[in-house]
Design goal:
The chain is globular, with a radius of gyration of 23 Å. β6 and β7 form a beta hairpin. The protein has 266 residues and is an alpha+beta fold. The strands form 3 sheets. A 4-stranded antiparallel β-sheet has the order 5-4-6-7. Strands 1-9-10 form a 3-stranded antiparallel β-sheet, with no helix packed on it. The chain has a 3-stranded antiparallel β-sheet with strand order 2-3-8, with no helix packed on it. It is built from 6 helices and 10 strands. It has 3 domains: 31 residues; 178 residues, no CATH class; 39 residues, no CATH class. Helices cover 32% and strands 24% of the residues. About 2% of the residues have low confidence.
Length: 266
């Protein structure tokens, strides 16, 4: 039996590369065909430059930004991800045996993100309410420096929520993309992303609390060369608010719910 020559192996490898690239291009073309599933106008609050991508090299051949999305309350807990929801998403929630629950494999789901909607407004209202209560405590004890410090920290937190924090919130998850789109029809506010949920539990005074960690499959957005000037001067990582240059970016999510940038201005 003859073995393949080096030239034959090289030809086979090149063929596989060409086929892989062709499949990827077909996927991109399909994703960007027709009417986008969603079209969001995002700002520097919902986008950041992750480590590993850069703008300052003249020979930089690509730029990708990361979506900045948040959990649906300030503690990172999801009120809607309760036991019945976990069961609806295909997980087994045993009456006893929390360890068995956490050993289940991650499952693919569709994530629903909401831009500048009720979830974000509730977050702002929480910050405003916490600051108002802190101000009342300071008024009752005006010489208490610790209360003053707490008030100042809450004032900064409110400013962060109102001016700098991301307005893009995870509000739901499901197995059927069409059903979720019918439930969340606003294509300029709601977007569906492919994701994965990995179940885990936390122990508490009332017994185990069942929940899941959540990861989006695709959350990076390629910036076309013609639009990169809008992001010049951005720093890697989330960065401090003083260094976040303002921008407005139009991001489309296509037939495969994958994002691409179609416009960006300072």
């Amino acid at each position: 039996m003859k073995t393949l020559s080096t030239r034959a192996w090289l030809g086979l490898a090149l063929t596989l590369i060409v086929l892989s690239n062709a499949v990827a291009l077909v996927g991109v073309y399909y994703n960007r065909s027709g009417t986008p599933q969603s079209l969001l106008t995002l700002s520097e609050r919902e986008l950041y430059l992750p480590y590993g991508d850069w703008l300052h090299r003249e020979d930089n051949s690509g730029l990708r930004l990361e979506l900045m999305w948040r959990q649906a309350n300030e503690t990172g807990q999801l009120d809607w991800l309760h036991e019945s929801k976990l069961r609806a998403l295909g997980f087994r929630v045993p009456a006893d045996g929390a360890e068995r629950f956490s050993r289940q494999l991650a499952r693919p789901v569709w994530l629903v993100l909401e831009l500048d909607g009720p979830a974000y407004r509730r977050q702002v209202q929480r910050a405003q309410h916490a600051l108002a209560e802190a101000q009342e405590r300071v008024q009752a004890r005006p010489d208490d420096q610790e209360l003053q410090r707490q008030r100042d920290a809450l004032r900064e937190q409110q400013e962060q929520e109102e001016r700098y924090a991301s307005r893009l919130f995870l509000i739901d998850a499901g197995l059927d993309a069409e059903a979720l789109r019918a439930q969340y029809p606003d294509r300029q506010r709601h977007v569906l992303l492919a994701g994965r949920l990995k179940p885990y539990h936390r122990s508490g005074n009332t017994g185990p609390h069942y929940t899941a960690s959540i990861q989006a499959e695709i959350s990076r957005i390629s910036v076309p060369p013609a639009l990169r000037a809008a992001f010049a001067g951005w720093q890697q990582g989330v960065g401090y608010r003083e260094g976040r240059l303002r921008v407005q970016a139009q991001v489309a999510f296509g037939q495969r719910h994958e994002p691409w940038m179609i416009g960006a201005t300072r």
